[in-house]
Amino acid sequence: MRRSVAALARAGVYRRRPKTFGDCAPGPCPWVSCRHHLKLDVDPVTHSVKDNFPGVEVEEMAATCSLRVAAEVGDEDVMSLEQVGAYANVTMERARQLVAEALISSRRAMKRGKKP
Question: pLDDT tens digits for 18-69?
């Protein structure tokens, strides 16, 4: 039997996915399909899914959203590679590689006049 969206919403089971960061509810984010969620990564070429925190439930994660982590850190603060690695569940060296890739991507986008 198929339940309606309204019935699911009344039961507290169904919530619409937030469209903006401002719409996000506090606490662990249940929307693992969001591209900013830290639980899963999807390879852009092969479309394979990688679980960044195997054996850890979303509710047990210290942080679930990369946007929320960035907002908490702020513009003036700097995160160490160890901290970045802990949030992404990668080694410090891999965190350094990711930061380097992000900087290259941002520079290319700025040269093209686009947002990164």
Answer: 778 888 888 888 888 888 888 988 888 898 998 988 998 888 888 888 888 8
Please give the model's pTM, rounded to 2 decimal places: 0.61
Q: Domain residues for 95?
A: 78-116
User: Are the CB atoms for 17 and 34 separated by under 8 Å?
Assistant: yes
Distance CA 14, CA 105 (A): 37
Q: Quick check: helix, strand or coil at residue 99?
A: helix
> Do 60 and 82 belong together in one domain?
no
Number of domains in the chain: 2
